[in-house]
Amino acid sequence: MAEKQKIYKPKAISGFPEWLPEERIAEQRWFDHIRKTFESYGFCSIETPSVEEIDVLLAKGEVDKEIYVLERLHKDEESDKESRLALHFDQTVPFARYTAQHFNDLVFPFKRYQMQRVWRGERPQMGRMREFYQCDIDVINVDNLPLSFDAEIASMIYETLEGLNIGRVQLRISNRKILLGLIESMGVTDPVPVTRAVDKLEKIGEEEVQNILIEEGLNADQASQVLALSKIKGGADDIRAIKAENDKMQDGIDELAFVLDNLAHLPTQAAIADLTIVRGLDYYTGTVYETQLLDIPEYEGSVCSGGRYDDLAGQYINKHLPGVGISIGFSRLFDVIRQTHPDKLGIGPKSPAHLLLYTEDKDKAALATKTAQTLRGRGFNVEVYHTVKKWDKHFKYAKSKMIPTICYPEDEQTAKFKDMATGEETIQNISDWNQS
Amino acid sequence: MAEKQKIYKPKAISGFPEWLPEERIAEQRWFDHIRKTFESYGFCSIETPSVEEIDVLLAKGEVDKEIYVLERLHKDEESDKESRLALHFDQTVPFARYTAQHFNDLVFPFKRYQMQRVWRGERPQMGRMREFYQCDIDVINVDNLPLSFDAEIASMIYETLEGLNIGRVQLRISNRKILLGLIESMGVTDPVPVTRAVDKLEKIGEEEVQNILIEEGLNADQASQVLALSKIKGGADDIRAIKAENDKMQDGIDELAFVLDNLAHLPTQAAIADLTIVRGLDYYTGTVYETQLLDIPEYEGSVCSGGRYDDLAGQYINKHLPGVGISIGFSRLFDVIRQTHPDKLGIGPKSPAHLLLYTEDKDKAALATKTAQTLRGRGFNVEVYHTVKKWDKHFKYAKSKMIPTICYPEDEQTAKFKDMATGEETIQNISDWNQS
Questions:
Q1: Are A249 and A239 in contact (CB under 8 A)?
Q2: What does DSSP assign to residue B211?
Q3: Which 3 state secondary structure label does DSSP give B348?
Q4: How far is A64 from chain B (nearest CA, A)?
Q5: How far is Cα A43 from Cα B24, in angstroms, rounded to an integer?
Q6: First vs last Cα of chain B: how many Å apart?
Q7: Helices (H), B163-205
Q8: Element (H or E) spanning A151, and its range?
Q9: What string of H, E and C letters represents the secondary structure of B241-268?
Q10: pTM assigned to the model
Q11: Alpha carbon A245 to its chain's center
Q12: Are A430 and A371 in contact (CB under 8 A)?
């Protein structure tokens, strides 16, 4: 039995953001746009459960992400017999597991998008999000996947981000084979320290990178050569001008030039080659992408990253599944724009209603219902104001929710429409009314 | 460091459903319809985090739902200082907490819908879902909320379920004040055992209920009177014909008749009074709803339930917030239809694409991109088939994904369109083409 009720004053949980209705409306607009763009390229949606078995999450070895494990509050003997479940920390591992599990029911090339929450058990004091949305797209195929997809994915992402109206978007593309080929040609066996050093070029500067490369065993000439290569930025011709030291390097050059050629339909500077891009993960084997928002300096780093990989799901299935994909860190991007450029979100209305329907006369309830239904049938969102109080109360309500029009039904055919912006009132046929 | 890779064959996790792409497309269609209907009544979306502090979840006292608590896999000293977090088991508690926390930023009446996953740590062998979507709508106001909303919520739910094309929908509505008033008039102090017995009427039958009522201290006449009342079904006039024993009972009669009167625009039998409906929860204080799918006998029980409550968030804020709301158990409904009436879901296409664009000629890649962009700009979803292989391969691909049309671009203006259903091929202007 509950004791006499105490008030438990709730507060925000650090790392688990939530939005007010007017912010949520803006967030929905973003999601709708992203989904529409993804589907316009024929990508289908999938959703996986929020959890995976811990063994699935750790199948590739320890992960560096903090994982949230689930425990039943009231454990019993049965609980101990079950597999341990944990919230997924990204959408790649669940996608790989999904593909392996449903392999025989899928048609390849399999093009999917996924827009779900992921969880990371970060320390709250680091100010990072512990629950956030990611929007991922990937194409995978059995045995081989045409390079044209590497360009298509870039094109989709450009169109997606460009349509959010957050200023200029720049995709920076490289191909790991170029740098890896050069490193191989120098007789270096472990390329990882070299690629890591290049990855830091923008952050720590040339001199520091040169020092690291020499520490890692390169001679001064070699280090300079790596640096010179990494600094290359430009178009397909700039890439073709690179002198290849071996076949791998030539492959990388050809592939990157091909991808850029296939992005010729995008505006100038929308997609450029940038050989500093290597991505930390060894997972990627060819094309790699990062994305910069040139007009949002407050967003540090890449808003959307990904690349080409040799094999998606080798830990779950004995099939060779190469693919290419990219991921938008949705919630962080939305939150940065929300905090620094709220004007770009069009935040305002606290209701999806196009119309507030009001009648002073209690006997007109049936008329109000009928008018509302007619207008809904015509595609308008109609809120009926049921509280009959002082005359101006519904007016204040429409204003505070930013509902653009008030409708006062007169009879089954006609109503008075008041435009809240101009104050203008007109009597119109209900079946003629259109939002101004 | 990862050891040599072992294959970990993944399997479904009991209670955590996931769908194939073609099922997911059907699920999205349902979600879109539900959202559209909710918004057409001016309800706004909110989302809360997946977790709440355990103290928030338990603020009303122990809950009978099984709760999943989160634990960080790599706990540290900091972990112990944090509040314990748990996945929410419904959307009512988070909605109450949200309303209290953001009270000053909300405009009342606050009309919100919420379509999120909830989690229940059920034993897996019970075959219940442990992760599922709920679609909730509620209206709340400060101090008092007009009864018209009780009818509006019923109307919305009818329209929502009716639009899913799963046969006849019947809302069964009652008002708890009627039965509670009668019980009070009999001098019974604790009404709970009586309402519980009535709640079981359809399941255990009249005789058994009569026995329970007598065990609970009613005399035979009183038990018969309770039974006779509970068996009343019908329209507003049948309710008005009930003889009230006290003011409470009369209030219930008037309210229920009012709600039914305000649902006169619905088809006959779409909304009926049914006094067996009492809902288990004492939370509800007036109107209560259940919903039956008359053509889906495989769905046992009510697909959508709710009612009127006196106070939403008394445990979190010192404001009186009466409301009315209802909840669709989305995933269970979808799964029952999927398993028993898959035809009603229109499952088929494995891609959202309207068109598969194909060119045999590698040199036409730029033309393909341009044609695809033109068609996308016209609102069509276009998948480009990048794999240039044997001629008929792309044809089989379109067939297996059920993409209805193949487009073979000829030049920037024209293309050949092949209708996959009829086999008909026509050369058309790209800017004229419309899906047949």
A1: no
A2: H
A3: coil
A4: 10
A5: 12
A6: 56
A7: 176-185, 192-199, 201-204
A8: helix A148-162
A9: CCCCCCHHHHHHHHHHHHHHHCCCCCCC
A10: 0.95
A11: 37
A12: yes
Among A23, A37, A44, A133, which would you mutate to test the B interface (most chain B Cβ atoms within 10 Å of its Cβ)? A44
pLDDT in tens, A315-346: 999 999 999 999 999 999 999 999 999 999 99
* B window 189-218, beta carbon within 8 A of A: none
Contacts of A43 (CB under 8 A, 6+ apart): A111, A112, A113, A137, A139, A156, B351, B352
Render A159-205 in DSSP notation, one character per residue: HHHHTTT-S-EEEEEEEHHHHHHHHHHTT-S--HHHHHHHHTHHHH-
Report how far apart, in Å, the C-alpha atoms of B194 and of each of B96, B199, B210, B211 are. 29, 9, 10, 11
Categorise residue A15: left if φ over 0, alpha if ψ from -120 to 50, beta otherwise: left
Q: Are A175 and A288 spatial neighbours (Cβ–Cβ below 8 Å)?
A: yes
Please indicate whether, in this complex, the C-beta atoms of B10 and A386 are within 8 angstroms of each other.
Answer: no
Residue B333 C-beta-side C-alpha neighbours within 13 Å: 24
Which percentage of chain B shows pLDDT scores above 70? Answer: 95
B182, two tokens:
């009668």
> Within 13 Å and on the Cβ side, how many CA atoms surround B124?
16
Chain A nearest-CA distance from B22, in A, is 9
CB crowding A242-273: b at 16 or more within 10 Å, else e: bebbeebbbbbbbbbbbbbbbbeebeeebbbb
Write down the residue that tokens 């193949």 correspond to: B406
Full set of structural domains in chain B with CATH:
21-345 (3.30.930.10), 355-429 (3.40.50.800)
Give the CB-side neighbour count of residue B140, counting CA atoms within 13 A: 24
ipTM of the complex: 0.95
The DSSP bridge pattern shows strands A44-45 and A110-119 to be parallel
Helix then strand then coil, % of chain A, to nearest 5: 35, 20, 40
For B237, the token pair is 């006039």
pLDDT tens digits for A79-118? Answer: 666 779 999 999 999 999 999 999 999 999 999 999 999 9
Closest CA to B5 of A282, A91, A144, A313: A313
For the record, the structure tokens of A272 come out as 């450029």
Spatial neighbors of B407 by CB under 8 A, at least 6 apart, are: B355, B356, B357, B358, B371, B375, B382, B415, B416, B417, B418, B433
* Per-residue pLDDT band at B360 (split at 50, 70, 90): confident
Task: Give the 3-state secondary structure of residue A210.
Answer: helix
CA distance A216 to A198: 12
Q: Which of residues 305-364 of A touch B (CB under 8 A)?
A: 314-318, 350-353, 356
Asked if A133 and A113 count as a contact pair (C-beta separation under 8 A), the reply is no
pLDDT value of residue A82: 73
Strand partners, A137: A113, A326
For the ranges A124-128, B112-116, B203-207, the lowest mean pLDDT is seen at A124-128
Question: Within the 45-104 window of chain B, which residues sit less than 8 Å (CB to CB) from chain A?
Answer: 45-56, 59-61, 66-74, 76, 78, 82-83, 85-87, 97-98, 100-102
Report the 10 Å Cβ neighbour count for B400.
13
Q: Which of A66, A72, A83 to mutate to test the interface with B (most CBs of B within 10 A)?
A: A72
Helix, strand, coil % over all residues of chain B, rounded to 5: 35, 20, 40
Hey, are the CB atoms on A61 and B352 less than 8 Å from each other?
Answer: no
Determine if the peptide bond prior to A109 is cis (ω within 30°): yes
Q: Is the dihedral of CA A195, A200, A205, A208 positive or negative?
A: negative
HEC secondary structure over B13-62: CCCCCCCCHHHHHHHHHHHHHHHHHHHHCCCEECCCCCEEEHHHHCCCCC
Nearest to B59 among A8, A102, A351 (CB): A8
Other beta carbons within 10 angstroms of residue B266's beta carbon come to 18
